[in-house]
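Hello, quick one for you while I still have it in my head. I'm working through a protein record and want to make sense of it properly. Would you mind checking whether the tokens look sensible for this chain? I owe you a coffee for this, so here goes:
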Amino acid sequence: MVTQGRVTLSELAVIEGSTFNQLRAILNANPAVRHDTTTLSEAEIMQRLGAMEGAAEGLFFPDTYYFASGASDLALLKRAYQTMQKHLWKNWQGRAQDLRLKRPIRH
């Protein structure tokens, strides 16, 4: 199976409106996830993600993410964070130019 590239994928559903604590609980409850962040604070996780924001709320794109068993929870968080950043950037580029905001709002 490995040499042929066939792997079994697991899934993680990031539900719209979930808090960061709820997202962490979902990750911690998933047996297919390698739990690398269980002893890290929110600030430490954000730092490891390379995030400029200090608070994590609202920064993870709601979607279903598929991953190979044993993937790090940090890698999954990074993927959801980067997906949100891409969507925010795309929408920021399409905004009305006469808005008073000069940059995206950060936490």
Remarks:
- The CA atoms of residues 68 and 82 lie 19 Å apart.
- The chain has three helices and four strands.
- Residues 9-93 form one domain.
- The radius of gyration is 16 Å.
